[in-house]
Amino acid sequence: MTDVTWLTQEAHDRLVDELAEREGPTRVEITKRIEAAREEGDLKENGGYHAAKEEQGKNEARIRQLKQLLESAQIGAPEAAADEVAAGKVVTIKFVEFGDEETFLLGSREEAAHASVEVYSPTSPLGAAVNGKKMGDVATYELASGKSMSVEILKVETYGG
Question: What is the DSSP code (8-state) at residue 84?
Fold first, then answer.
C-alpha cells in the first residue's frame, strides 16, 4: 500500500496538465531536437545532442514521478476534526522556547509552488510531530542537530488556496 498524497483540486489539475504536456508536445519537441542533432554527424562532440538527451532523461523521470504521484493522490483532505492538524490544514504554531510564531500549510511539496503560505510535508519532522494534534497541544520533534524542539498548536484552519 502506498502512502496517500492529499492534493487540492487545483494542484491535481495542474499536475494532470503538466503530465499531458510532458507526454505530448514536450516529448515530441525533445525527440525532434535529438533527431536534428544526430543529422549533424559526430555525436561524441555534439553538445546539442547531449543536452537534448539529458533533457529527455529529465522529462521522462518527471513523467514517471507525476504518474506515481497521481496514482496515489486523493483530492481534498483526510477527515479530521475542525481543530485537528491534518494534511490540507493551515497551522499556526508557537515555538515554546523562543515564543516565535509560524503559520504553514501541512501538505505535499506539489502545493508549495502555488500556496500562499509556507508548506511543510506531513512526513517532515515538524509536520509529523504536529499531525493529528489539536489546538492547545504541545508537540516535540527532533532537529537535525539532535536537539528537541517543542511547539504549541495555536490555530488550525482549513486551507482556502
Answer: B
Sheet-wide strand order for 138-142:
118-120, 101-106, 89-95, 148-158, 138-142
The reply to whether 66 and 16 lie within a common domain is yes
Can you give the pLDDT at residue 1? Answer: 39
d(CA 125, CA 135): 19
Contact 152, 141 (CB under 8 A): no
Q: Are 7 and 110 in contact (CB under 8 A)?
A: yes
Determine if the pTM surpasses 0.85: no
Instruction: For residue 84, tell me if it sits in a domain.
Output: no
- Say if CB 48 and CB 98 are below 8 A apart: no
Residue with cell 508537540: 139
Write out the three cell numbers for 136.
492547545
